[in-house]
Specification:
By secondary structure, the chain is an alpha/beta fold. It folds into two domains: about 220 residues, TIM Barrel (Alpha-Beta Barrel), CATH 3.20.20.70; about 80 residues, no CATH class. Helix content is about 45%, strand content about 15%. It contains 14 helices and eleven strands. The strands form two sheets. An eight-stranded parallel beta sheet has the order 1-9-8-6-5-4-3-2. A three-stranded antiparallel beta sheet has the order 7-11-10, with helices on one face. The chain is globular.
């Protein structure tokens, strides 16, 4: 008898079939991706980090037309227009918000007043306890394997998640380097009640990412990502001309202002959305070496569930 995903707090909280959440990634997670994930049993998130308020409003409205299921918005709190983005979320009656890159306490009261579920992304136990103390409904514990921006302490998913589970009363969602059913099984075995998956969903047909970016992830091997910008907001990216240049700046102790100037040309947009493989930032996780195709979300979700069940059956030896 193959084990199915069991009922847990996250599935009930978010009203989803599978405990699988698609990360709200910049330049990737528009309404097409979010609605496709939600329509196939997971939770889709619109990534507001690369959107102006009016564009976020448009994506929310289109997502609501495209799915009858739960979906949410990821809100990076350090954005200069975070107040405006939060207002759009409230005005458009979005009921699930994943906050990141900042302290959720600033918005928790207004979100709770509007019956919004708030889940915060953390990279350490300290930040998780703060999120719980201000009233977040759950946390995403993100290990340094993850693509994009990471915590400076460089805690791995495998070490971080059980510590969060042991210390918190609220549910824990695991993220960082998870791209298939085996990874989901491992995360749930550590006590997580769901997973958040980024790069694997970025490389699907519904993703807004440029085909050049998707192919770069498909072609990446186990050692083709590295950590950069350790003093400016550490990020994991696929190695390319720009990332090597910024790494040399760091090694040579180039001042931070010069490094900031190198970043000022919207590097994420160049790499992920415009497909500039030399001058852009190609944010991707260490699981990129496991990603070998560009499926539809429907195909991917079916595959992930099958992989999970196969992995569970294979290790049922005790």
């Amino acid at each position: 008898m193959v084990r199915k995903f069991t009922i847990n707090r996250i599935k009930n909280l978010l009203q989803i079939k599978f405990p699988i959440i698609q990360a709200g990634m910049v330049w990737v997670s528009g309404w097409k991706l979010a609605s496709a994930v939600s329509n196939n049993g997971g939770l889709g998130l619109i990534g507001s980090g690369s959107m102006k308020p009016e564009l976020l409003k448009e994506h929310i409205q289109k997502c609501r037309v495209a799915t009858d299921h739960s979906f949410g918005v990821n809100l990076p709190l350090l954005r200069g227009d975070a107040d405006e983005l939060a207002k759009v979320i409230i005005d458009e009656n979005v009921k699930i918000v994943f906050t990141s890159a900042g302290h959720p306490g600033k918005y928790i009261d207004i979100f709770k007043k509007n019956n919004i579920t708030v889940i915060h992304v953390v990279s350490s136990l300290k930040f998780a306890l703060k999120a719980e103390s201000v009233g977040c409904d759950a946390v995403v514990g993100e290990g340094v394997e993850a693509g994009g921006h990471n915590g400076l302490d460089e805690l791995t998913t495998f070490s971080l998640i059980p510590q969060l589970v042991d210390a918190l009363k609220i549910p824990v969602i695991a993220a960082g380097g998870i791209s298939d059913g085996r990874g989901i099984l491992a995360a749930l075995s550590l006590g997580a009640e769901a997973v958040q998956i980024g790069t694997r969903f970025a490389v699907t047909q519904e993703s807004s990412a440029h085909i050049n970016y998707k192919n770069a992830v498909v072609n990446a091997k186990d050692k083709d990502t590295h950590l950069v910008l350790k003093k400016l907001g550490m990020a994991r990216v696929i190695k390319n001309k720009f990332s090597q240049e910024i790494t040399e700046m760091e090694l040579n102790c180039v001042d931070l202002e010069t490094q900031k100037e190198a970043l000022s040309s919207k590097r994420e947009m160049k790499g992920i959305f415009e497909g500039n493989l030399e001058e852009g930032m190609l944010e991707a996780s260490q699981s990129s070496g496991l990603i070998n195709d560009i499926p539809t979300v429907e195909e991917l979700m079916k595959r992930i569930v099958t992989e999970y069940n196969s992995a569970y059956k294979a290790i049922k030896i005790l």
